[in-house]
Design a protein that fits this description.
Number of helices: 14
Number of strands: 7
Mean pLDDT: 83
Distance between the termini: 45 Å
CATH superfamily of the domain at 89-221 and 248-305: Vaccinia Virus protein VP39
Structural class: alpha/beta
Strand content: 5-15%
Largest sheet: 7 strands, mixed
CATH topology of the domain at 89-221 and 248-305: Rossmann fold
Shape: globular
Helix content: 40-55%
Strand order of the largest sheet: 3-2-1-4-5-7-6
Length: 306
């Protein structure tokens, strides 16, 4: 989509476009009277993208009906994790794959916090343009770093003023599903190398469903039309991939999916794992059918550097 065709902003494509879909989900949540958080900028991003994006996102949302609910859940969970980490002494916060995240503006950070946002340059460019129209002022010291996380993002982060000897609160939100197992391992290795004692980590990961864990391919399939079926959830993910032109790791489950707690332990993190279904109940929300049936399993984790 070219600039000026449907919007005065250059809309990010591919993985960057998913950031707009997430922003739309945050905008919807912010309008609820029982909202889990308030993001006053999310609607601005969606409006800046123009009507063409709205049509695309509505079509995708109709295929992933539980997506908005989950985005709201994980946003609140990670808000709590990051603020808890800062209360424990972290004064550096790093958002890997920040997208259109606005935590630097909407959360009340302790004095002295420096927040680094890492994402593709085109995503950050779109974001900066929209925030400028609102004269948005961060509530902490904010540093945006345009870099591909498959490249040497650690060097770019240090060059931007990051101090590896200081405890850091890391957030890995919405990106692991786009990486292979080797890429995930490299990512956590680099995070570990930059993490002083007392550092915290919050992340999410797609889990292996009950059938995948049992490794019983001969099990009879659930009806294709059932709302929480594995087949329906997989088809929705495949349609999302095809529509956005992105690549997601939705093949066979690997170690980080099968046993995420031990995966984090191997990388030097003491973790506490939560199923998304459990967190829905914790925050007083109904569990979406795909998660209630086990067709879709997502893990949320908070961890401390060993």
């Amino acid at each position: 989509m070219s600039q000026g065709q449907h919007s005065e902003y250059e809309i990010p494509e591919g993985v960057g476009l998913t950031a707009l879909i997430i922003a739309q989900a945050r905008a919807v949540e912010s309008q609820r009277p029982d909202r889990l958080f308030d993001d006053p900028f999310a609607e601005e991003f969606v409006a800046a993208a123009g009507p063409a994006f709205s049509t695309t996102s509505e079509e995708i949302a109709s295929r992933l009906t539980f997506q908005g609910d989950y985005v709201a859940l994980r946003t609140r969970f990670f808000d709590d994790c990051l603020l808890d980490a800062c209360q424990a002494g972290c004064r550096q916060v790093v958002l890997l794959g920040a997208g259109l995240d606005t935590r630097a503006f909407r959360l009340s950070w302790p004095e002295g916090v420096r927040l680094f946002e890492l994402d593709l340059p085109e995503v950050l460019s779109f974001k900066e343009g929209v925030l400028a129209t609102r004269s948005a002022t961060p509530t902490c010291r904010r540093v945006a770093v345009g870099v591909d996380l498959r490249e040497d993002w650690a060097r770019a982060l240090v060059a931007a003023g990051f101090l590896a000897e200081e405890p850091t609160a890391w957030l890995v939100e919405g990106i692991l599903m786009y990486l292979t197992e080797n890429e995930r391992n490299r990512l956590l290795d680099r995070v570990g190398e930059l993490s002083a004692p007392g550092s915290r980590l919050a992340l999410e990961q797609r889990g292996a469903g009950d059938r995948e864990r049992r490794a019983l391919p001969a099990d009879p399939p659930e009806p294709d039309g059932s709302e929480g079926s594995i087949e329906q959830a997989k088809k929705a993910s495949e349609e999302l991939v095809a529509r956005l032109g992105v690549q997601m790791n939705i093949g066979q489950p690997d170690f980080s999916m099968m046993d995420p707690e031990n995966w984090l332990t191997r990388h030097g993190w003491r973790s506490r794992m939560y199923s998304a279904a459990e967190r829905f109940l914790f925050y007083g929300r109904p569990v979406p059918p795909p998660m209630e049936t086990g067709a879709v399993q997502l893990w949320l984790a908070s961890a401390e550097r060993s």
